[in-house]
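Need the bound structure for guanosine-5'-diphosphate, inputs here:
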Amino acid sequence: LPVVAIVGRPNVGKSTLVNRILGRREAVVEDVPGVTRDRVSYRASWSGRDFTVVDTGGWEPDAKGMHQAIARQAELAMATADVIVLVVDATVGATSTDEAVARVLRRSKTPVVLAANKIDSDKAEAEAAALWSLGLGEPYPVSAAHGRGAGDLLDEILKVLPTTTQVVPRLDGPRRVALVGKPNVGKSSLLNKLSGTDRSVVDNVAGTTVDPVDELIELGGRPWQFIDTAGLRRKVRTASGHEYYASLRTRSALEAAEVAILLIDASQPITEQDLRVLSLIIETGRALVIAFNKWDLVDEDRRYQLDKEIDRELARVPWAQRVNISAMTGRAVQKLVPALDTALDSWDKRISTGRLNNWLKEVIAANPPPLRGGRQPRVMFATQAATRPPTFVLFTTGFLEAGYRRFLERRLREEFNFDGSPVRVNVRVRD
Ligand code: GDP
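Answer from helper R.:
Posting the output first, comments after.
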């Protein structure tokens, strides 16, 4: 989903405006640093368009260094959001902090909408007009607290909101790949290697270049659509909230993709951050290739360690395709293509109901489900309800233990080969 970031100094009414956009009245998010993710990002919808609203209120610093902190907040939004809404308290007018933010935002290639907040009456509208001085175009008068003008503001936001890659799977055209992984794992290096051009990193903060969101890259003689490479080619300096924004982008890239290449730095221990990205991939149900990068730095000792880490940390995805590469030297990067193909074949695979049930009968005859409360649940029938990823439904007469479900999934994988793809097995109990 496209991202709308709400920026502005403390107490101008950002959180109230967010609640207004979400169309609800519940308590405002506290302005404390380190608030959890779900409290700062929300799914919103207006006139039939869905988008994510990010309330940057959570990252506000104390008064010390306010200018700088807010300028950073704005830069971060410029590098990562699709629309920025700058909220100013019109009853106070443009403060020097507002001016500092506006200076940053005037360079923005990301559209900026100026919200003149706390305009509670017609009479107060003149105060909004004074904010033309910020050089960000027309100020939109709103009263976040009372709702006045909120519709017009939202209409304006939608006008400048880009239509992003649709999540809807498309069977024709190039396959869609999300290149994901923690910062500094080598995503942009790999992208450069694959696209064959060693482009220098775009300094987004200076607003020099407009990158297309996605890129077509030819691999193995075919074009592949790499999702949101603009986000990868940009270098966002470390700032509070950076990681949060990055995970938001990762999620939307995954949602737009069919297959993920998860980059892991093979030269370093696998970290929490790697596992968080992995969790996002699992949640979105994408096919998966894990590329262990920086293989040029891996010696025998490290290799041994890594094997142990993989057993321990990546046990959730024994089915993932794996390749060992070096984005720097180019080692084995061509192996990504067969790995992607295998993963996508599995992801798209459909097993006919006849084959599936023949197999099921045999497995169950040899290994009947364990008794539950003295009764033997019967597995009557299975069907593949969906592909992308393959999703199966088992109809039973009783609850199946998790262990037995895992057993069936394992056997299903062995029989039909879903390498590189998650498989979902749902159980429907019929009375
Ligand atoms: P990103 O944040 O994931 O896009 O990571 P970058 O592509 O910017 O890479 C981070 C750092 O790791 C840079 O200094 C790269 O030169 C370095 N790097 C990336 N891939 C490799 C690799 O395969 N081997 C080595 N030795 N260094 C690498």
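Comments: Residues 181, 183-189, 232, 293-294, 296-297, 326-328 surround guanosine-5'-diphosphate (CB under 6 Å). The CA atoms of residues 97 and 277 lie 35 Å apart.
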